[in-house]
């Protein structure tokens, strides 16, 4: 292997190792303290993405609401959140850490084959639903969703679709739309990106290998939509999103395209009942703050709070649904 490639590879491995070490040190720094004194929130993705947004908004709500003395967010990106999940699984019994999770992670669990899943966590709460959109650059020839689908059906290879992790919710939405529109799923040219920032750069670029259609959570595109650089063709939501002039899948005659990207929090396995109760109470107080209510409105989320055993049962059923959908779509 050329020396430069060896050095680059070692550099990547070193950065990953340092991130994991920093996270472990941060999480363990709260050992022996109550979660009210020091709490770590893991965002299992890079800064700027949806999971990071939830963690940062939660951090702000806990601070302004005087719910927790010290709240820190630690980013552990990679593999649809399953790298963060693996790290959380190694923190058995630590009641001062929670990790953001959601639909994308369940897809990652299905794809990873590692055997580590939600059963290796302590479910705390589902918080809200975050909706997917299909967007194109402002100058795109696709003025409507129908324009896009007609061109896609005529030549799937000529219309590459961009989104997040392979097998994640963006990929599943692309496959659902293709299936509903009569486009063979195996012909879909899907390009995975590390996060919303990388995807938007690709959408706005005219270089070879970039994409002209993107699928992601609305908040990944919001600033560029507001700035007129991107246009939303459709939203995957039961109702139109406030302030966005784009039809829902039901309006477009594709009600079977219905994946919702919910957001939730889980803790390490093996914590005590008292620790679990404390974390649940912290979350209940967090979502009752004005700061959190403003975040829900600003980010166009829909509140969908469930806790404890109800959330645990939801995760079991949702994992089964995602597993079945991935198999059905051939992903």
From TrEMBL:
Record carries keyword Oxidoreductase: no
UniProt keyword Signal, yes or no: yes
Highest taxon of the lineage: Bacteria
The entry's keywords: Signal
Gene3D superfamilies for the chain: Bordetella uptake gene, domain 1 (3.40.190.150), Periplasmic binding protein-like II (3.40.190.10)
InterPro entries: BUG (IPR005064), Bug_dom1 (IPR042100)
Any Pfam family matching the protein: TctC
Signal peptide as annotated in the record: 1-22
Record-linked PANTHER family: TRICARBOXYLATE-BINDING PROTEIN, UPF0065 PROTEIN YFLP
Family that this chain belongs to: Belongs to the UPF0065 (bug) family.
Protein name: Tricarboxylic transport membrane protein
